[in-house]
TrEMBL record:
It comes from Butyricimonas virosa. Pfam families: Terminase_2. GO terms for biological process: chromosome organization. This is Terminase small subunit. Keywords: Viral genome packaging, Viral release from host cell. The lineage of its organism: Bacteria, Pseudomonadati, Bacteroidota, Bacteroidia, Bacteroidales.
Length: 201
């Protein structure tokens, strides 16, 4: 049975093959445009297709199911990404000495430790020991941002599901009906709130 075949739960949700593939691809990198292209939709309309797909209730539900069962449904690529994020998010910074370290110290780091390193700088110091000139290499490392990896893990596992927010007027009606406030930034929400206060005097 194919991976996509395994992902279907007794055909509970009626999706086309392209829609099912779109859900699968979206769970890998959360890029709706690229997911649409990889699913076989017209590349020139991929942005609009991805946007429209994410608005469809049956597709949103299928993606939520896949996120809830990531190990079973998302496939090897997503799992590998998740594992890499896990290394970064839960790395112990105490294992890494701040400042410059010798090349020998750097080479003694494990593969998992090295996977947490975003950037490496090197320098060579020349000095004389007795009458002999000696060159010693040093390495300075910069680690990946742990918080970004934690955020990525939350997104991949669906822990960051948006909380519905509603702003009502004096009559109790939602003043921004039709606008998904969960997709707005904090700055945009603040702007809406200020406009609301002005509108209500």
């Amino acid at each position: 049975m194919s991976t996509l075949g395994k992902m279907k739960d007794n055909n509970e949700i009626k999706l086309t093959n392209k829609q099912e593939r779109f859900c699968y691809e979206y769970c890998i990198d959360f890029n709706a445009t690229q997911a649409a292209i990889r699913a076989g939709y017209n590349p020139t309309a991929a942005y609009a297709t991805g946007y429209e797909n994410l608005k469809k209730p049956q597709i949103k539900k299928r993606i939520e199911e896949m996120q809830a069962n990531l190990a079973r449904t998302s496939g090897i690529s997503a799992l590998r990404v998740l594992k890499e994020h896990e290394k970064l998010a839960f790395s112990n910074a105490a294992r890494f000495r701040s400042g410059w370290i010798t090349l020998k110290e750097f080479e003694s780091l494990s593969d998992d430790d090295k996977a947490c390193i975003q950037e490496v700088s090197t320098k060579t110091i020349k000095r004389t020991i007795g009458d002999e000139p000696v060159e010693e290499e040093f390495v300075k490392i910069k680690l990946y941002d742990k918080q970004k990896s934690l955020d990525s893990i939350s997104k991949m596992l669906g822990f960051d599901a948006p909380v519905k927010q509603e702003i009502t007027g004096k009559d109790g009606k939602n003043l921004f009906e039709g606008i998904d406030l969960s997709k707005l930034s904090q700055e945009e929400l603040t702007l809406y709130y200020n406009l609301l206060k002005k509108a209500n005097g």
